[in-house]
Design a protein that fits this description.
The chain is mostly beta strands and 162 residues long. It has one domain: Nucleoside Triphosphate Pyrophosphohydrolase, CATH 3.90.79. 14% of the residues lie in helices and 34% in strands. It has 2 helices and 7 strands. Strands 1, 2, 3, 4, 5, 6 and 7 form a 7-stranded mixed beta sheet that branches. A hairpin with a 2-residue loop joins strand 1 and strand 2. The protein is globular, with a radius of gyration of 19 Å. The protein starts with 18 loop residues before the first strand and ends in a 23-residue tail after the last helix. The relative contact order is 0.22. The C terminus is likely disordered.
Length: 162
C-alpha cells in the first residue's frame, strides 16, 4: 500500500522526505505570459512568482500577495487554474496550486528581477512547467472545454433522491 499524505507539524525549511504546498502565479498581460529574470545568485534565471504556502494560510490570499509583490498588484482577475504534484529532491513531495493573474498593467523592474513578456502564443518551459501547460493557463479557465453535465437517474432507495 502506498504511503498516505499525512503532514507533521510546520517546519522552517525543507525536510528530506517531507512535503510542502506551493503557490505559483501565472501573470498574463494582454494575452501574453509575463515571467521574471531574477538576478539573485541562489535563484538566477527565469521564474514565475511563487512561494511556499504558510501553514493554515488561504491560497487565494497567498496568490494575491505574490501579485502585489511581483506584479504591482494591478489585477482584473485571479483564478485557480490547476493543481499539480511534483517529486522533490531527497524523496519529498510538492503539491502545487497554480493561479492565473490577469494584469491591468505590465509589472515594473526592480533591483533583483526584471519582467519579460513573451510574444503572443510563445512560451518556454519555466521551472517545472511545460509550455503546453503554460499556454493552457494563459488562455484561462474560459478557454477550457466545457465538460458535459451528466444527470444521474433519481434513486428511490428509502424514498430519497440522490
Amino acid at each position: 500500500m502506498p504511503a498516505r499524505a499525512y503532514f507533521g507539524p510546520p517546519r522552517d525549511g525543507f525536510v528530506s522526505g517531507g512535503a510542502h504546498i506551493s503557490v505559483y502565479l501565472v501573470p498574463v498581460y494582454r494575452g501574453r505570459l509575463v515571467v521574471f529574470d531574477v538576478q539573485a545568485r541562489e535563484a538566477r534565471g527565469r521564474w514565475l512568482p511563487w512561494d511556499i504556502l504558510d501553514f493554515g494560510a488561504n491560497p487565494y490570499e497567498a496568490a494575491s500577495a505574490l501579485a502585489d509583490e511581483w506584479c504591482g498588484g494591478a489585477l482584473s482577475d485571479l483564478s485557480l487554474v490547476d493543481v499539480m504534484s511534483f517529486p522533490v529532491e531527497g524523496g519529498g513531495w510538492e503539491l502545487t496550486l497554480i493561479f492565473r493573474a490577469e494584469l491591468d498593467e505590465g509589472p515594473r523592474a526592480d533591483e533583483t528581477r526584471t519582467p519579460f513578456v513573451f510574444a503572443p502564443g510563445k512560451v518556454d518551459a519555466i521551472g517545472p512547467f511545460d509550455p503546453v501547460d503554460l499556454l493552457r493557463w494563459i488562455d484561462g479557465p474560459s478557454a477550457a472545454p466545457a465538460r458535459p453535465h451528466v444527470q444521474k437517474p433519481p434513486s428511490t432507495q428509502a424514498g430519497l433522491l440522490f
